[in-house]
Specification:
single chain; about 425 residues; alpha/beta; nine-stranded mixed beta sheet; 14 helices; globular
Length: about 425
């Protein structure tokens, strides 16, 4: 079976979407399965990935609204009469299943495929992959709370959901938005299939006193300093002000916050690092080397994840795999793996996070115990396990919807046969 995946907001060296599809390519190579990925790029190009994978890059502009580091595929690439690029790819590849990982400009591809608007392309199984919530994006970027939630519910229920045969969400938190927006007229199944972590590349065994000392010297800190770490985009939806509020309220000891990442809020954070938080807030920029990033995780004292509306959160899971104690909100997709036994959960306020960090630092034995439990949990989310689940899910969905297309009496009766999927389907 051949699957073709279309994603926007893609960056070749960072981000959850890139990490997920690279892992999917690796699993496809092991399984000798054909997989194709269509993403935006600086120029149009084709890249073979191993013997069975292929990436198509479409020349696309930077995102006009979100992080400009990311590029977006716009409808002119597929809408007639000028949209020939994606049509050419679909016609050449003739995939059995098409998965679209975007809600704004790309879901219409599924609608066109459903209606036979791409001549020469057989009707594939159509899957919408949700890796974020639309209402959270509208809240973060447009300050639209209640109105944004109403619009998201309308758009998802009437425009997005009906385009596809079935939907996959990366967490129950992400799936909840889809399920709540679904109307009786456009019912669809929503399967929850979490993504994963490189549990070999990120490991507590990487920790070393020499590496930690180099890190302390880099930021001008003494050996008694405690190092808190955030890794991720410096973008409005990440709730970064909580990090600064937390740091302001931590009064005991020499506590430093290291921030690894880049994004539209970098200038504001740098101004704070050079002003009232001088010596306590350290911006490391984008860390492109996975080896360097793994060493950073392993040699800090706690990972701070501020976003209560995280769809899933690969970075916190990487911290857990690294044996780094995790402080996270008691809400959102991080609860897919973070519990009071594996992490330090707190209300998403600066005061609550500061109190939780101080408690963690004051109880190193308890922190070490939870970190060991976190490592065991992260092992269950190894990419080899997770991507195997995705391929099993694709196979089942294609087999079912080929025999029971949307509109037929049993189209919505699909339930997973694969035992690993049985517990993670939202009804």
């Amino acid at each position: 079976m051949k699957t073709l995946h279309i994603a926007s907001a893609f960056h070749a060296t960072s981000g959850g979407i890139s990490t997920f599809y690279r892992a999917l390519f690796a699993e496809a190579e092991r399984r000798e399965r054909h997989i194709r990925l269509v993403v935006p790029g600086e120029r149009r190009a084709v890249e073979n990935v191993g013997r069975f994978g292929r990436m198509y890059y479409l020349k696309a502009p930077s995102s006009p609204v979100f992080d400009r580091k990311y590029r977006v595929v716009l409808p002119n690439w597929f809408l007639p009469p000028n949209g020939s690029a994606i049509h050419e790819i679909l016609k050449a590849e003739r995939p059995d299943l098409v998965e679209v990982s975007e809600k704004y400009s790309l879901p219409y591809i599924a609608g066109l495929l459903r209606r036979g608007k791409f001549p020469g392309v057989p009707r594939p199984t159509l899957v919408g992959f949700s890796n974020e919530r639309m209402d959270d994006n509208l809240r973060a970027f447009f300050k639209a709370d209640a109105a944004g939630k109403r619009f998201a519910r309308w758009f998802l229920g009437n425009i997005y959901l009906p385009q596809f045969d079935v939907h996959i969400a990366n967490s129950e938190y992400t799936a909840e938005e889809l399920v709540s927006a679904m109307s009786p007229k456009h019912r669809r199944r929503v399967a929850v299939c979490p993504v994963g972590v490189d549990a070999d590349g990120f490991s507590p065994e990487i920790r070393s006193e020499a590496e930690r000392q180099r890190l302390l010297e880099r930021i001008g800190a003494g050996t008694s300093a405690k190092l808190l770490l955030y890794v991720g985009r410096l973008s409005p939806e990440k709730n970064l002000p909580l990090l600064l509020e937390m740091l302001e309220r931590i009064e005991d000891g020499d506590v430093r916050l290291l921030v690894a990442g880049s994004g539209p809020l970098e200038a504001k954070l740098r101004a704070r690092a050079e002003d009232d938080l001088r010596g306590r807030l350290h911006l490391l920029g984008h860390v492109g080397s996975r080896t360097e990033l793994a060493a950073l995780y392993a040699n800090c004292d706690a990972f701070i994840h501020p976003n209560p509306r995280e769809p899933f959160g690969i970075a916190p899971l990487e911290a857990m795999a690294s044996g780094l104690p995790l402080v996270a909100p008691n809400a959102g997709g991080v609860l897919s793996y973070a519990t009071n036994e594996t992490a330090w959960l707190a209300a998403p306020t600066g005061e609550a996070f500061a109190r939780t960090v101080q408690n963690l630092l004051q109880h190193p034995e308890k922190a070490a115990s939870r970190a060991r439990a976190a490592r065991r949990t992260a092992e269950k989310f190894r990419w080899e396990v997770v991507t195997g689940r995705f391929f099993a899910l694709y196979d089942e969905l294609h087999a079912w919807h080929s025999a029971h297309p949307i509109g037929s009496p049993r189209a919505l009766d699909w339930t997973p046969r694969h035992p690993a999927l049985a517990a993670i389907v939202a009804r």
